[in-house]
């Protein structure tokens, strides 16, 4: 997953305004008490950040990959 794909999913799954606010403000313990934006800026892989954000928001697995049925879910590492 690339940064561009991360942000596309944020917008699609959470909505542009709400998703951007979550990424900027929600502190994620799974990411060392950093926000998604901070973790990405620090070089954390987007897939790791995405999984942490989805876990924190209790997004069900089938809804994590947006509306494109052909989009493949990036595996956890």
Q: How would you describe this protein?
A:
The chain is mainly α. The protein has one domain. It is built from 4 helices and no strands. Helix 1 packs across helix 2 and helix 1 packs parallel to helix 4. The chain is globular and about 30 Å long. The N and C termini lie close together (12 Å).
What's the short story on this structure?
The protein is an all-alpha fold and 77 residues long. It has helices at residues 3-14, 16-25, 36-41, 46-56.
For this entry, give a set of tags.
single chain; 77 residues
The residue fraction in helices comes out at 40-55%
Structural class: mainly alpha
Give the termini separation.
12 Å
Low-confidence stretches: none
The total count of helices amounts to 4
Helices and strands, with pairings:
Elements: H1 3-14, H2 16-25, H3 36-41, H4 46-56
Helix pairs in contact: 1-2, 1-4
